[in-house]
Amino acid sequence: MNLKKWLATAVVVAFAGVGAWVFLGTGTSPAPQSTFVLLDGTTKTTEQMKGKVTLVNFWATSCTTCVAEMPEIIATHEKFKDKGFDTLAIAMSYDPPAYVVNFAESRKLPFKVAIDNTGANAKAWGDVQLTPSTFIVNKQGQIVKTYVGAPDFAELHKLIEKLLAQA
Question: Domain Thioredoxin: where (predicted)?
């Protein structure tokens, strides 16, 4: 009986460890090679992100947390955009493109917005299904932090400042 309890505990601890690594963003991993189709019809690739610290946010117009956090994402973008920081908001495949365009225009989003029509970007970035999901990518193109749900923006700003100071 003790062996069964020990094995059960070991399995739970292993899954918790993996979950913490994935969802809390400890460690770094290369950002997946992706091409994003922007609202203006142009594209942006993960390769083009290199050299800047980039916030990549998967969101949807139907997600109340996404809509609520957008003013903070705008403020973050405005605060750091002249220091080597960029923001890319990726609307989920189920989000009607007209809603995304209306949201971006009515809120005057000051950063690039893409629509993941096929779901390929969400799949490549860890099979994103929960929104908002936010990834912080360093200048070398590595994901250094992942947030599922709204980030703690004070903590996020400290991380961005730290990453911007690195070579």
Answer: 25-165
Residue 22: inside a domain, yes or no? no
Encode pLDDT of 23-80 as tens digits.
444 568 999 999 999 999 999 999 999 999 999 999 999 999 999 999 999 999 999 9
pTM: 0.83
Tokens at 9, concatenated: 């505990």
Question: In this structure, is residue 161 part of a structural domain?
Answer: yes
d(CA 96, CA 119): 13
Tell whether 17 is covered by a domain: no
DSSP 125: T
What is the number of domains present in the chain? 1
> Taken in order 33, 44, 106, 69, is the CA torsion positive or negative?
positive
Output the domain CATH number for residue 33: 3.40.30.10
